[in-house]
Amino acid sequence: MTLNQKIRKNLWACMVPAAIAVGLTACDDGSISSSSSNESATVTRTRAMPTGAGTGVLMNSPVSGVSYTASSGKKGVTNEKGHFDFNYGDTVEFKLGGLTLGKVRGTPVVTPMDLAEGDDKKLLNLLVLLQSLDTDGDASNGITITEEAAAAVSNAIKLNSDPEAFASSAELQSVLEAAGIEHAAKTTDDARAHFMISGVTTLSTQLWVNYNDSTAYVLRVSSDDSGEYLQGQATPDDSCDENRVCGGRTIIQAGVEHGVAKATEFDTRGFKILGETTIDTNLKAGLSDPGPTRRVRTDGLDLINTDIVTVQRERAQKSVFGEMFHIAKPIELSDENEVVEKEIKETRLSRIDNDPTGIVGAWAYDADVIKTKTLVFFPNNRMLLIDPVGEATRENQARCAKPGVEFASYNYNKGSNQLKISGFTYNTDGCIGFSGSDGAHGFTINPDGNTAKLEKHGEEPVTVYRISG
Predict the structure, then answer these.
(1) C-alpha span between 332 and 316 (Å, rounded)
(2) Model confidence, pTM
């Protein structure tokens, strides 16, 4: 039987990570609602959207020389850093000469993915056009478009045409000649390869988090273009995949993941990012197992995950066993012409909260290394310890130390420099971390707010470094 497929755009725009979205239920208006597959309590958090003036960057590499007009009246030309000005809530139109590149919501990061508005042909043609107009032909050092080059572009350029034909078109060649650009137009392969590099580097602008009173998820990507990343999550065990097809074994669990991420393909929804891991204790969660249709991108405010999933149907449970374990069967079609309906599910992580003089934020044991113990203190008095190393600090820990995470409540008194941690919901790092020690710990933040001295019972004091903000 041939299965027909129909994809509907049903964006669940909620603040939950794709790796754990199978265990979370979303609600609207920027809030989140968490409930695991084993029916844990629901907690909701609402994130305030920015207001007022903002500065964005037009990215392939940073693109200068593109005209913009915001609905608030702000307008200009992107500068050498690709910057443009807008007010949050604006629609911003980008143009080269007489050609409109696209109209998008004003955000801190705008890429050709946003300008393409769901058209894969337009996306690739935008990449070819912008990179071909670069004055030195080397997009790795930024894309600079001169006034002459911008003025030479007209609406004779058809961004929805076949990309291979567009790259070799007479219209594009005439623009290059009028602009005095001597290098050849970029091929689609060249344009695609360069843009692929930005798939991971744009994620390094922030630490990305999702948290509530019951769960937490953190992703950190190195800013040195290496693609190195560290991920920690404290979430319930789950035996169901993104389509809610469930089996008898756990496929997602609380843990830590470290490795090198790279983009392997892209479309207008984002990049397919694959992590090659050195440590992976969370099973199929995270970047190590992205699935065939999961895509990731950022608008500078959120890390946006989308996936194409099967639309769920009501299932009649015919046994107590089936009711308890939600064993899924293949969808039964009434005939060969019935459509298997799919939908695009969108889930988001937000930028990390940071108090520059307080404890809220992220702290690393080594300021220059990604693969290091990392403490994340959230504003709701929850903390996540991510330990990709698992080294014992005391002799009696040698046999039980392992990489993992701890998720617990905390109380911090800045006046007395006392940090109390209790109520561990998750503890997968064995006998190390805070779970192996009792009482209050010392946590003294330096006046500049960038470092702190951590004094745990039975261990030598260590300096931790603020990596958020």
Answers:
(1) 13
(2) 0.85
Beta bridge partners of 347: 14, 305
- Which residue type, as a one-letter code, is found at position 271? F
User: 385 is written with which tokens?
Assistant: 């310890």
Cα–Cα–Cα angle for 60, 64, 66, nearest 5°?
95
Residues 6+ apart with CB under 8 A from 262: 199, 200, 227, 273, 274, 276
Q: Which residue reads 């993104």 in tokens?
A: 242
Q: By the 8 A CB rule, do 207 and 220 touch?
A: yes
- Residue 97 gets the label, from left (phi > 0), alpha (psi -120 to 50) or beta, of left
Half-sphere exposure in the Cβ direction for 329 (13 Å, CA): 10
Q: What does the DSSP 8-state code read for residue 394?
A: S
* Residue appearing with tokens 């843990």: 255
Q: Can you name the residues that pair with 220 across neighbouring β-strands? A: 230
Spatial distance between the Cα atoms of 265 and 274, rounded to a whole number of angstroms: 10
Helices 120-132, 188-201: crossing angle, 10 deg rounding: 100
Q: Domains in the chain and their CATH numbers?
A: 4-43+212-351 (no CATH), 53-200 (no CATH), 361-466 (2.40.128.280)
Question: pLDDT, tens digit, for every residue of 25-75?
Answer: 333 333 333 333 333 333 344 567 789 999 999 999 999 999 999 999 999
